[in-house]
Specification:
Number of helices: 5
Order of helices and strands: HHHHH
Largest sheet: none
Radius of gyration: 13 Å
Number of strands: 0
């Protein structure tokens, strides 16, 4: 996989999550995560490349320690777009060869 496309707003929230985490601003980090969660659970059908947005959210869930939630989300992303989806790599990384 050479590149990925994602809607600008969810990508900005993902970057905010990473940035505020690095700055140790936990409240703002959680606000960014909540915004990304809202996009994935409320308005996912209104954005471009929803499978990539789901993968961004799942990566955040992994960093939060919610491996089960991340795996569920990666599987949902893969179900939405089975081929050429980074979720396939993440699922393989998390579960090992099957």
């Amino acid at each position: 996989m050479d590149w990925a496309e994602v809607d600008a707003r969810p990508f900005m929230l993902y970057l905010q999550y990473l940035t505020f985490g690095g700055l140790r601003e936990r409240q703002r980090q959680l606000q960014a995560l909540q915004g990304l969660w809202d996009i994935c659970t409320i308005t996912l059908e209104d954005i471009y490349h929803p499978e990539t947005v789901a993968n961004l959210l799942c990566h955040c869930l992994e960093m939060e320690g919610d491996m089960e939630g991340a795996l569920v989300g990666y599987n949902a992303s893969r179900d939405f777009m089975p081929r050429n989806n980074a979720a396939n790599l993440h699922i393989h990384r998390m579960t090992g060869p099957q």
